[in-house]
Amino acid sequence: MKPPTDLDQLLTQTPAKDNAAMERVLAAARGELALRRPVRRWRTQAVWLMAASAGLGLLAAVVMLAVGAVTAPLLLARAPLLAMLVGTSAVCAWGALSPKGRWMRRLGVGLAVVSAAALVLARGTPHSPPSLPGWVCTVSHLAIGVVPLVVALFALRGAFFQPLRAVVAGLSVGSTGALLGELACEQDGRHVLSHHLLAWVVITVVLVVISKSLKPRSYAP
């Protein structure tokens, strides 16, 4: 029978040095430093994410107004909700990429919940029956979110994976489709809940899953 291990003795012993392992670690570190990769500031990446999400949604609004797909009175009527979505997108993007943005991430989640509730409650009874099936809204929201999704994934690789960080980045990306829905859809709150918000949730989940599977470029906080 083996004698019991003396824990105090183990704690006071100096661990054996593995010179070969140390050399491999140093060689890998020197190789990374020799690449001289440019350091991208998180603020710059946050601005890019805001431009790709909220900016893309606002650009869609301008284009739709220019071609007559929406009217100026409609834009004015939806302005408070659009402003709320843009603000939510900006807070989520900034919180997702800020190294010390934990409180902002929580604020972003709260704003997203409030915005989602406002989108549903603000809808009245539609004046005419829908001309397209409801899933068209879901697909279009997911499609317009592809560009900001790619931007968000690229930016998130600059730090180690954190679930809340990925969630708020996904909420920022999903706000793009929500903006489009406020411009292009006149259906009731039930439709918004089952198709618009569904797309928002789906694209957030997709971003979290993909972000977790990607190898980060840096393990910074």
Question: What this model shows, in words?
Answer:
This protein is mostly helical. 73% of the residues lie in helices and 0% in strands. Helix 5 packs parallel to helix 8. The longest helix is centred in the middle third of the chain and has 26 residues.
Summarize the structure.
The chain has helices at 7-12, 19-35, 42-66, 72-97, 102-121, 135-144, 146-156, 163-184, 189-213.
Query: How large a portion of the residues is in β-strands, by DSSP E?
Result: under 5%
Number of extended strands: 0
How many separate helices? 9
Q: What is the H/E order? A: HHHHHHHHH
- Main sheet characteristics: none
Report the structural category: mainly alpha
Average of pLDDT? 84
Helix content: over 70%
Determine the N-to-C terminus distance. Answer: 48 Å
- The stretches of 5 or more residues where confidence is low (pLDDT under 50) are none
Principal-axes geometry comes out as elongated
The radius of gyration over CA amounts to 24 Å
Question: Secondary structure elements and their pairing?
Answer:
Layout: H1 7-12, H2 19-35, H3 42-66, H4 72-97, H5 102-121, H6 135-144, H7 146-156, H8 163-184, H9 189-213
Helix pairs in contact: 3-4, 3-7, 3-8, 4-5, 4-8, 5-8, 5-9, 6-8, 6-9, 7-8, 7-9, 8-9
